[in-house]
Amino acid sequence: MKKSEKIKAVVFDVGGVLALSTVVLKKRIMGHINLGIHEYIAKELNISLDQYFDSIDITYSLAMEGKISKNKALQIISRNLKTPKKKLAKLYANSYKKHFLPNKHLFKQAFKLKKRGYKIATFSDQWYLSQEALMPREVYNKFDIVLVSCEQGMRKPNPLFYKLLIKKLKTRPSEILFIDNQTWNIKPAKELGIRTILFKDNKSLFKNKIWKGLFL
Predict the structure, then answer these.
(1) Which of 63, 144, 179, 206 is geometrically suited to a Cys-Cys bond with 127, CB 3.0 to 4.6 A?
(2) What residues have CB less than 8 Å from 198, skipping those under 6 apart?
(3) What domains can you pick out in the chain, each with its CATH number?
(4) 136: part of which helix (H) or strand (E)?
């Protein structure tokens, strides 16, 4: 790696990277959602999956980009699902915790990188309830930068979101390494000159030449 290309910041996605799915993904709906999350809630409420998605549709998308408050989102969805807000919030919390586990090995590696002088950041699409369940503050406060779609008013793969990341990190794009598990999220990063690794699992990541070079 040339001196001019030396990586100074390492950026991690959350869902599918720092938070690993406990079930096999059946398919992708509305971007990055693990179907198991929603199957669980629909089953608990004794409704069909189609009925469930009809009930959250637009509200969920707005909440993902922070264009509607947590309280308002819960109010609308709870009304549509005929379920009290408190019960609904608990169902989501239980579902996220049931279907995702923290990637402890990768967290350890990330914090090792920080000790070696790299900036570490998270860059993730989340709505309020998934953020609360998957991104505990006591852990994520250890990162230098935490960018979450519902707090920033935009989400991947919007190029403006990536430009905000570059601005916050105060580094050139070529000095950033971004790790994400979705090809459509990797593409705009590459177009802006950010270095990328498509995450499949820890084993393949830790064997990656770019990743190994961070520890030399």
Answers:
(1) 63
(2) 180, 181, 183, 186
(3) 3-21+101-213 (3.40.50.1000), 28-100 (no CATH)
(4) none
Residue keyed to tokens 């961070």: 214
How far is 113 from 4, CA to CA, in rounded Å?
A: 19
Q: What mean pLDDT, rounded, does the chain reach?
A: 92
Task: Name, in order, each residue with C-beta under 8 angstroms of 115's C-beta and a sequence gap of 6 or more.
Answer: none
Sign of CA dihedral 157, 158, 163, 166: negative
What's the burial of 164, exposed, middle or buried (CB within 10 Å: 0-12/13-18/19+)? Answer: middle
Stated pTM of the model? 0.91
Please give the Cα distance from 13 to 96 (Å, whole number).
16
| Residues facing residue 176 across a β-bridge | 9
Reading the block at residue 43, the tokens are 């089953």
